[in-house]
Give the backbone structure.
Amino acid sequence: ELSLLSPSVCFFVPSHFLFVANGIVSDLKLLILGGEAVTELIVQQFSNSQVLVWSWYGPTEATVATITNLN
């Protein structure tokens, strides 16, 4: 189960994230969403949150994902 890992960074397709969100949000620091448009529901869920939400949606999302360095 994903919640047992206590992830702090996750990369999801927005529609899949909606199915697992309740189990992982407590330790999440950065949520990266790509592959499809981010829904209003997700935007509202994190509007007053300390979690950073990055949208990597678009034709360059694969390039962005391969060159990102969080260090």
